[in-house]
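Cross-check.
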Amino acid sequence: MMASYIEFLRNRAPLVQNITNFVAMNMVANAQIAVGASPAMVHALEEAAEFTKIADALTINIGTVDAYWENSMIAAASMASTINKPWVLDPLALGATKFRHRLASRLLAIKPTVLRGNASEIIALNGIWKPRGKGVDSSDTVADAENAARNLARFISGIVAISGEVDFVTNGERSVRVFGGSQIMSKVTAIGCALTGVIGAFLVEQEPFGATIAAHASFSYAGNIAAQNSLGPGTFNSAMIDALYAIKSFEIDDEVKIEDV
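Predicted model, tokenized:
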């Protein structure tokens, strides 16, 4: 069932615009190329929205945002929403400052096709719309954030994905858990950012809920294979790109456990 999504992606070879952070750009681009997409790191305000018209999908990651990039992100997201292009929001470290909270709030209001983050980010973002008396806690688990994810999915009328030891994907009504991956993934910078990029690639001309699950399943499977073929975090990066590139579509259905919640 998941095999058809990656086969379609590879045949389609979509162009994905990424307004992502400086730390992640290389990893995001390589991950998208590995799964069959063509990445474009276009973030200048003067061209961001114009390029969104050309691209097949958009991903936005607020990791190293500034006021200039904020305007680019809003412009590109607004264009994607206006012309019905799929787009993914990654609210990286949104709980750290008021500036990030405000930006994440503005982007969420534009209603991304998919919102992806870790448990603490999803809980914090849910707090923008539904006050929560507890601050962001790094000990938050995926299970802690599941209700917040459902709330946010209903608000954006889209998909919310939580990354963790077991990933969680919901559209507000139906939810699944995706098993796999490796503990070493949490020791490598930009892995989550790369997943956001891969989701953007999978979304092009495919049903969003299934495409998001397929992206997570592919990424988790690749992470497991990469862990077996690396010595540590340094070699894992290269092994991860190789694993994404080498995935055979049938392996996702055969090897990845996906469980309805």
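The chain has one domain: 3-260. The chain is about 50% helix and 15% strand. Passed to J.P. for a second look.
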